[in-house]
């Protein structure tokens, strides 16, 4: 996190978060969707069933995205940096839309509309909704709310704080590439390896910051910080993802529910370990998860803004002494 320009970057992060709260994701022409279309078009030229091809594909797209952010932000501090960071944070953040979709899922499941819930599930995760009943849909949605609290909101805030517009745009790019090609299907097992590993590295700090925020916010949903921390420390390492396990286990402990188990994707069935030692999650627990996610998002935004501002002031004092 660079000390100079702390105030302008902090203002940009705050403006981007506010824009996400007010507007949510744009319904048409979302820059992330445009990036996905460009990545898919490039893939038709770069695809080979080899890791090296995936490295070239991923590195090229990340470099291009970072360059766009650098040009937009410029090298001087001021209003231009604030505007660039605000726009990049808004583009990358998806916490408001995540929670709105979670609330829609709660409404559908409460009304007993399993077919409607199945149709909505792909908006949250890549699991096969056709094989899920109401309980399975509830668990899938809750796990997705937990994981995407980190991926869709806390991660962008962390990278906006650390590196401004270029960093947060590159973070969203690698996160999108991981969703597109970072799976273990026969087509992407090798080509998507680089995207999956890059996403793991990009989320290491964000996932653990998310876990800390979940532990702190557990009382908001009637949970125990100690239970959240215990589930995180005991169960997260068994998850196939080094980062999703942190978010899901800490959520499970905070909500007093049990997550994990058989997880059906289009390309494979995963048997995941148990996260938490509570009851099977119910629809009311999904509603609590949405509330917990919102609280974690607010706390993480506040910490990011304050941290950048304090770092900027500290840097200016050190420069003045020199």
TrEMBL record:
<keyword id="KW-0812">Transmembrane</keyword>
<keyword id="KW-0169">Cobalamin biosynthesis</keyword>
<keyword id="KW-1133">Transmembrane helix</keyword>
<keyword id="KW-1003">Cell membrane</keyword>
<protein>
    <recommendedName>
        <fullName>Cobalamin biosynthesis protein CobD</fullName>
    </recommendedName>
</protein>
<dbReference type="GO" id="GO:0015420">
    <property type="term" value="F:ABC-type vitamin B12 transporter activity"/>
</dbReference>
<dbReference type="InterPro" id="IPR004485">
    <property type="entry name" value="Cobalamin_biosynth_CobD/CbiB"/>
</dbReference>
<dbReference type="GO" id="GO:0005886">
    <property type="term" value="C:plasma membrane"/>
</dbReference>
<dbReference type="GO" id="GO:0048472">
    <property type="term" value="F:threonine-phosphate decarboxylase activity"/>
</dbReference>
<comment type="similarity">
    <text>Belongs to the CobD/CbiB family.</text>
</comment>
<keyword id="KW-0472">Membrane</keyword>
<comment type="pathway">
    <text>Cofactor biosynthesis; adenosylcobalamin biosynthesis.</text>
</comment>
<dbReference type="Pfam" id="PF03186">
    <property type="entry name" value="CobD_Cbib"/>
</dbReference>
<dbReference type="GO" id="GO:0009236">
    <property type="term" value="P:cobalamin biosynthetic process"/>
</dbReference>
<comment type="function">
    <text>Converts cobyric acid to cobinamide by the addition of aminopropanol on the F carboxylic group.</text>
</comment>
